[in-house]
Amino acid sequence: MDLKQLTALVTVAEVGSVTKAARLLHLVQPAVTRQIRLLEEEVGVALFNRTHQGMIPTAAGEALVLRARRALQELERARAEIRPDPRQVAGIVTVGVLDSVVDVVVPPLVTAVAQRYPEIHLRIMAAYSGHLQQWLDAGDVDLSLLYNLAETPSLAVVPLLREDLWVVAPTAAGLAPDRPVTWATLLEQPLVLPVAGHGLRALIDQARSSMPVEPRIAVEVDSMHLQKKLVLAGHGWTVLPAAGVAGDVAAGILSGAPLTEPELSRSVVLGLSRTMRTPPPVEAVAASLGRLIRTLVRSGAWPSARLSRPVGDDDG
């Protein structure tokens, strides 16, 4: 088993075709086919089902692709970190970002890292907090924004901020950021909510559990994008983090307001693995993210948020 075989395996699995993989790898098709065949002979099982729809990994193939991809990423990271000048911070850093804060965080983070650490290559992976935590535990991301998480045996957690959740409605509802909406008003409306088991849904259910009115749930979804689309289409109101809807509210696409009586908020934290030494590029990106969070909150670019404690510093 060598790097050429692992590279061919991962590439074929990603594009679903030996022909496409050969083009991407700048090889002839028989060479890629041979690498896959040699790998299958070595492990003693079929790694792909050859179908009219393309090359589909078998269960064994999927398991090997997962580990091969991780191994190739680590080797790529090691190559990027080896530089003639050891003072130069360089390498590949994979950052997990909550779906609900992508618009607020990702563009300025990419800009800040490019300006301060031009030799760092960022990879951004966006998902819900539960998925991000799994990826962080598995080593698929180097650091990640998470919410409502305390430290665990495998993760070190740095509190960043606490942000209020907003009621989100069509523009015709006339909600405004300076006029909070009560739970009583919210529960008069049909609701578009995350599916049960989702972290945000758990917050919502816990907050309304003491109220006598049962919610009228119009639809449950597993996507913030779908929540907003369904609200826009008039299927009901919803509850989302302020950072996830502030741009839509400012653009007049949706209307939104802080939720009150009682207020509902979540904490956003930075998670890092305890199980391995933190490489200098990861430390650099973590520090940049901390500085960025401070700036976003203090400038009001992250609405309805307040710092949990001082994060980073202005010069570090």
TrEMBL record:
Gene3D superfamilies xref list: 3.40.190.290, Winged helix-like DNA-binding domain superfamily/Winged helix DNA-binding domain
Domain of life of the organism encoding this protein: Bacteria
Domain HTH lysR-type, chain residue ranges per copy: 1-58
InterPro entries found in the cross-reference section: LysR_HTH_N (IPR000847), LysR_subst-bd (IPR005119), WH-like_DNA-bd_sf (IPR036388), WH_DNA-bd_sf (IPR036390)
Pfam families: HTH_1, LysR_substrate
Record carries keyword DNA-binding: yes
Stored PROSITE patterns: HTH_LYSR
UniProtKB keywords: Activator, DNA-binding, Transcription, Transcription regulation
Family as reported in the entry's similarity comment: Belongs to the LysR transcriptional regulatory family.
Name of the featured protein: LysR family transcriptional regulator
